[in-house]
Amino acid sequence: MFYIVFFFLIIQRITELFIARKNEKWMKKRGGIEHGKDHYPYIVSLHLLFLISFFIEVQVFQRELTDIWFVMFPILFVTQFMRYWSVFSLGNYWNTKIMIVPGDVVISRGPYKFVKHPNYIVVAVEILLLPLLFHAYITAILFTILNVVMMTIRIPAEESALQAYMNYHEVFPIKSRFLPKR
């Protein structure tokens, strides 16, 4: 079961990189500007090291599927639904980088009507639950902490860029990092 989950994860990440590259080209043609270049390599490293750590911990310690897989799989399924809802809602604006097309309107449809950063929530849940699914506790704890640290840099950088170049303050006037206006 681990190899199926891990293979799906790798294919998903590679596909997302292709989508992000295509969207980046589209945005740059429209005058898109990249923000957060300084921290982006750390995000890439975090995700790559997460995959490596997850794989090694499960293989070296011969971890098996948890007995409560029937609880965790539905949660992970819902996170995948949320991921793709986020990606499709943003359309050509979805990216792994902070890419802003100055003057464009902030997307506030789909899950963005309810939460400002649904994809970051999905990633946080995955980083915690995927390793726990196979008793990879070291990976789950270490990378959850590292992801929280990274999001304290990433989210303010993204919101700052959105506020500077788009109508972000009009769409999401409240200060909360996660709750949009109601």
Polypeptide structure, described:
Keywords: Membrane, Transmembrane, Transmembrane helix. InterPro entries: ICMT_MeTrfase. It is found in: Membrane. This is Isoprenylcysteine carboxyl methyltransferase. The chain crosses the membrane at residues 39-56, 68-85, 120-146. The protein is mainly alpha-helical and 182 residues long. The chain has one domain: Up-down Bundle (Four Helix Bundle (Hemerythrin (Met), subunit A)). 66% of the residues lie in helices and 3% in strands. The chain is built from six helices and two strands; from the N terminus they run H-E-H-H-E-H-H-H. The chain has helices at residues 2-29, 40-60, 69-90, 118-133, 137-165, 168-171, and strands spanning 33-35, 98-100. The protein has a two-stranded antiparallel ribbon with strand order 1-2. Helix 2 (40-60) packs antiparallel against helix 5.
Overall outline: elongated
- Secondary-structure element pattern, one letter each: HEHHEHHH
Number of strands: 2
By CATH, the architecture is named: Up-down Bundle
Q: In what order do the strands lie side by side in the largest sheet?
A: 1-2
Structural class: mainly alpha
Number of helical stretches of at least 4 residues = 6
Q: Please identify the top-level CATH class.
A: Mainly Alpha
Number of discrete domains: 1
Question: How many angstroms does the end-to-end distance come to?
Answer: 42 Å
**What radius of gyration results from the CA coordinates?**
17 Å
Give the percentage of residues in beta strands. under 5%
Helix content: 55-70%
Mean pLDDT metric: 92
**Quick one: biggest sheet?**
2 strands, antiparallel
Q: Give start-end ranges of low-pLDDT stretches.
A: none
CATH topology: Four Helix Bundle (Hemerythrin (Met), subunit A)
Keywords: Membrane, Transmembrane, Transmembrane helix
Transmembrane segments: 39-56, 68-85, 120-146
Organism: Metabacillus halosaccharovorans
Membrane topology: Multi-pass membrane protein
